[in-house]
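Here is the promised in-class demo. Please do not try to memorize the tokens; focus on the logic of going from shape to residues.
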């Protein structure tokens, strides 16, 4: 094998492994109380006229540690159920006021669903990061 062929194989290996993402949690964000009792069992039904910023903040709090819940197999289904309930109300408002913004939110929510349903914590982590940025941008307007 020539040096050129060995170099090409090494480069291909690095590029293939480089495509794998790293899941991390941004430690600069305050840790919300997302224990199963705080986020699912003790919560009341979502009010249809609840303030949109409160709905989005609660979704963000639930998605904050969803990746770790998937790893620990602890409360991820209940958290996703609550996220879906909140999103049903929030989506209607966003769709009626700003229909062009719905896609970015849906992308984040779908990653959360995929993470839970397929046990893919990295998808849940990516969904949280997307949602965090989308919520920040949406609420700053």
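The designed amino acids, position by position:
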């Amino acid at each position: 094998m020539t040096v050129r062929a060995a170099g090409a194989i090494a480069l291909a290996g690095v590029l293939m492994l480089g495509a794998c993402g790293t899941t991390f949690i941004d430690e600069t964000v305050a840790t919300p109380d997302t224990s199963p009792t705080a986020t699912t069992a003790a919560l009341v039904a979502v009010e249809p006229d609840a303030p949109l910023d409160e709905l989005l903040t609660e979704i963000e709090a639930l998605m904050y540690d969803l990746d770790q819940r998937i790893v620990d197999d602890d409360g991820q289904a209940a958290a996703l159920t609550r996220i879906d309930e909140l999103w049903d109300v929030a989506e209607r408002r966003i769709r009626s006021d700003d229909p062009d913004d719905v896609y970015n939110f849906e992308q984040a929510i779908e990653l959360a669903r995929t993470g839970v349903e397929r046990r893919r914590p990295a998808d849940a982590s990516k969904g949280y990061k997307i949602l965090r940025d989308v919520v920040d941008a949406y609420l700053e307007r």
